[in-house]
User: Which sequence fits this backbone?
């Protein structure tokens, strides 16, 4: 999809009737994200706690491998590591997943897709940065085309260090993330909403041709 | 191989030749005759397959060296045609009419080295770099580290363990 | 009279709740078995419950219009509607729910209704993968529907009744009275058609998670997905119960019902484990060959015999 596809336009039907198309209205929500306040959460703390427990025990991972680390996710499904027993499952679409694993280096082009996918996930959503590339650039620290720090572009809940970390490390990462969520600290989506301008500024600084709407949900 | 090179020598100016391996040879020709040589090799010598087109930045000599690597699938031999073009305002005859893949290589070279191929289709469209506005990043005078530090947010506390430095310190601590 | 209806409604809701639990457990246990076959430890058998709670607790982000909302609801309607009108336990006044003399036809309608609703809802989302999934799903379900209806017709003709209670009644008194033995051809047809609507391999190209992300429900998230997975649990069991009633002598108690539904479900699981995926054109062709001929044969045999 390019910018032209998102413009408002008038198309003509077979009987020459006018049809006004506004793709931004049709496919995207134009409102900026809002952080959930305590009042909006509304429900009793015990229900929130129960919901948090359910969220932590049912982590649906977006099956999108950004870098070399994607190969480490496959062993997690195999008999040896079997992440399914911890409630970790893979979903093919961002709409149905709540954990985004950034698996390794992010080039600018991939970052663009990663941001779209992240914004399309329903909150509360969590991000796990895997590998040193997401932490400080790793071996691509001086590359002209890969980002250095992931947490400047999207809020990261858990980092898993290593190049690449073994599947066991990822399992530990899942454990840590579960603990965070159960404590109610998995509020990356709220942080993203609060500091939206800053994140967008950082993203737009490196993504020069921004051919998508600012808000992708 | 030698026979092929000799046959080419009769028709085109060959500046130098390198017999790398039994099945791999490089010849250097000049800018005007390069594409003609490649065409001749494709049509009469059986080098029907374009392996790659790439460039090398000889910063000190002030030239870009283009290599058209061709393959003869029947005889299983490779032949590279090298041509040197000046580094400032680099321009080369387009060869997109020979292979469809050539246009893509030329697009990449335009993006990464800034070598222009007039007439090559879709050459100025962004290829790998999306919306790049700096100098071509594969040129050697482009400082990627400085660029990365300016653009991406480097995390402080990064230390380096350069093997040469490390061994020097370890073996000659006095300096 | 009103009291009677209210009590019946409460019992229907109770049976709905039981069916939902059966469905979720069935799902969990099946996946556990799958994992064990793969030599994995597998998910916890109560994982579907957690997933359901989680899906309901997620935020709803985006809507694509009215039909987008209605799609999952239609789908849920089909599952709930089936349970409402199906006689679950033969001989039990209370768990016969709202079954009436023509309920079998209504149930057939409900079976197809959900698919149509989902198609409308998913089409509204504007996601190209949904559209592909819907096209495939409708084509495949329609192709499977023809032999299914033929086999049902055969049973209707055989028992001269459209009421499920009567059909079950005619199969009582020993398992040799089951339709499975009195009309094996119709049963075979129905069992083949059954595979087509279970969204399992070899007929799962509709969802095809690796190819078109997940087919029709690509854009559904949060509570929508919760509704869909709720329905998935209910609908599967409802369909199994319908089959049990039609072909396997019904059930006179809950354990019997659960056992029969479980083994019937395993049929699709076993087939799914063994056979690889069909493309849509292949599956439609397949449905229009063997099952269709078998279905026609079952009706013709009835006319001769």
Assistant:
């Amino acid at each position: 999809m390019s910018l032209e596809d998102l413009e408002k336009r008038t198309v003509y039907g077979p009987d020459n009737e006018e049809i006004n198309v506004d793709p931004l209205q049709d496919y995207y929500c134009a409102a900026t994200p809002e952080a959930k306040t305590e009042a909006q959460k509304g429900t009793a703390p015990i229900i929130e706690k129960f919901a948090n427990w359910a969220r932590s025990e049912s982590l649906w991972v977006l099956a999108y491998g950004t870098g070399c680390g994607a190969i480490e996710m496959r062993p997690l499904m195999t008999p040896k590591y079997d992440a399914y027993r911890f409630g970790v499952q893979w979903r093919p679409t961002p709409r149905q997943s709540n954990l985004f694993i950034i698996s390794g280096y992010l080039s600018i082009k991939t970052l663009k897709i990663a941001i779209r996918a992240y914004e399309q996930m329903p909150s509360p959503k969590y991000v796990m940065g895997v590998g040193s590339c997401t932490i400080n650039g790793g071996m691509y620290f001086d590359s002209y085309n890969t980002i250095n720090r992931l947490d400047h572009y999207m809020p990261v809940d858990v980092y898993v260090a290593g190049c690449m970390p073994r599947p066991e490390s990822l399992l530990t990462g899942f454990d840590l993330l579960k603990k965070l969520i159960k404590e109610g600290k998995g509020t990356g989506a709220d942080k993203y909403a609060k500091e939206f301008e800053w994140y967008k500024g950082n993203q737009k600084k490196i993504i020069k041709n921004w051919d998508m709407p600012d808000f992708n949900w | 191989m030698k026979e092929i090179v000799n046959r080419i020598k009769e028709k085109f100016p060959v500046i130098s030749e390198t017999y790398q391996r039994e099945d791999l040879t490089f010849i250097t020709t000049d800018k005007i005759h390069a594409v003609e040589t490649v065409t001749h090799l494709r049509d009469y010598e059986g080098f029907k397959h374009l392996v790659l087109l790439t460039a090398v930045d000889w910063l000190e000599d002030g030239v870009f060296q283009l290599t058209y690597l061709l393959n003869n699938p029947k005889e299983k031999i490779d032949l590279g045609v090298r041509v040197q073009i000046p580094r400032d305002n680099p321009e080369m005859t387009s060869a997109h009419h020979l292979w469809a893949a050539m246009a893509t290589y030329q697009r990449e070279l335009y993006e990464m080295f800034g070598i222009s191929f007039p007439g090559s289709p879709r050459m100025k469209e962004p290829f790998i770099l999306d919306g790049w506005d700096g100098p071509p990043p594969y040129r050697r005078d482009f400082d990627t580290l400085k660029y990365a530090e300016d653009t991406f947010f480097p995390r402080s506390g990064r230390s380096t363990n350069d093997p040469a430095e490390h061994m020097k310190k370890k073996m000659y601590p006095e300096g | 009279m009103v009291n009677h209806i209210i009590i019946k409604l409460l019992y229907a809701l109770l049976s709905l709740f039981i069916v939902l639990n059966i469905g979720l457990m069935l799902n969990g246990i099946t996946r556990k078995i799958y994992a064990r076959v793969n030599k994995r430890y597998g998910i916890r058998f109560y994982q579907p419950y957690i997933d359901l709670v989680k899906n309901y607790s997620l935020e709803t982000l985006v809507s694509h219009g009215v039909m987008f909302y209605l799609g999952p609801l239609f789908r849920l309607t089909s599952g709930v509607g089936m349970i409402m009108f199906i006689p679950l336990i033969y001989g039990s006044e209370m768990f016969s729910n709202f079954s009436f003399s023509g309920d079998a036809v209504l149930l057939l309608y409900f079976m197809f209704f959900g698919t149509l609703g989902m198609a409308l809802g998913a089409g509204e989302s504007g996601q190209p993968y949904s559209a592909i999934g819907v096209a495939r799903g409708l084509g495949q379900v329609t192709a499977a529907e023809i032999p299914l209806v033929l086999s049902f017709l055969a049973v209707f003709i055989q028992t001269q009744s459209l009421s499920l209670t009567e059909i079950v009644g005619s199969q009582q008194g020993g398992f040799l009275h089951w339709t499975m033995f009195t009309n094996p051809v119709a049963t075979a047809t129905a069992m083949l058609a059954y595979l087509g609507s279970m969204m399992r391999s070899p007929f799962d190209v509709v969802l095809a998670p690796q190819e078109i992300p997940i087919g029709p429900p690509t854009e559904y998230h949060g509570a929508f997905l919760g509704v869909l997975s709720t329905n998935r649990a209910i609908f599967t069991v409802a369909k199994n119960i319908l089959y049990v009633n039609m072909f396997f002598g019904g059930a006179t108690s809950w354990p019997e019902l659960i056992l029969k539904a479980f083994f019937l479900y395993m049929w699709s699981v076993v087939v799914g484990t063994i056979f690889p995926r069909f493309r849509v054109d292949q599956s439609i062709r397949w449905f229009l060959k063997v099952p269709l001929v078998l279905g026609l044969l079952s009706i013709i045999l009835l006319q001769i015999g």
About this structure: The mean pLDDT of chain C is 84. Chains C and B do not touch (no CB pair under 8 Å).
